[in-house]
C-alpha cells in the first residue's frame, strides 16, 4: 500500500527562517518576493495557498486579501464565497490525495495556538495511518512531498475548476 506521508523534518521550508515581514499573508497578497509564495488560486476576495509548514500533504489555507483578524468581519457574501472555495478544495484534495478525512478550522486569538493573526481557514487532509516511527523503522514506503511540489500539483488542478470557483 502506498502511503503519502510528508516528513516535516526533511522539508527545506521547515529549516528556513520565517521571513521578517509585518504579516506573511498580506505579503502573499502583495506577492512580496521576501515570502515563499505557495498560492494555488485567487478568487474575488480570497487566496488559497499551500501551508508553508504543512501538517500533511495538501494542507491548505484560505484567507481574505483584506487583513482581518476576526470571522465576524467577513460579510455574508464573503462567507458564501469561502464555503464554495472550501467545497471545491475538498473535491480537489480527495481526487489527488484520497485522504480518510479532513480537519477544517480557524485558530483565533493568542490562546488558540495561532501563529498568524491574519484570518485564515485551515484545511488539513487526515490519514488513518499517519507517520509514526514504527513506519520508518519497519521500512514502509514514506513519500516526502515538498510544499512547492504540492503547490504545483494543486495549481494545475484548481485551473481546471476555475468556472466552478468563480461562478
Ligand atoms: Zn495580513
The CATH class assignment is: Alpha Beta
Largest beta-sheet details: 5 strands, antiparallel
The SS-based structural class is alpha+beta
Average pLDDT confidence is 84
CATH architecture: 2-Layer Sandwich
- Structure annotation, total helices: 6
Bound chemical compounds: zinc ion
What is the strand tally? 5
TL;DR?
This protein is an alpha+beta fold and 167 residues long. Helices cover 34% and strands 15% of the residues.
Explain how this protein is built.
By secondary structure, the chain is an alpha+beta fold. The chain has one domain: 2-Layer Sandwich (HIT family, subunit A), CATH 3.30.428.10. The chain is built from six helices and five strands. A five-stranded antiparallel sheet has the order 1-2-3-5-4. A hairpin with a 3-residue loop joins strand 1 and strand 2. The chain starts with 11 loop residues before the first helix and ends with a helix.
Summarize the SSE layout with pairings.
Elements: H1 12-15, H2 24-29, E1 39-42, E2 46-50, E3 60-64, H3 76-97, E4 101-105, E5 121-126, H4 133-137, H5 147-160, H6 162-166
Antiparallel strand pairs: 1-2, 2-3, 3-5, 4-5
Bound molecules: zinc ion.
Residues 23, 25-26, 67, 118 line the site of zinc ion.
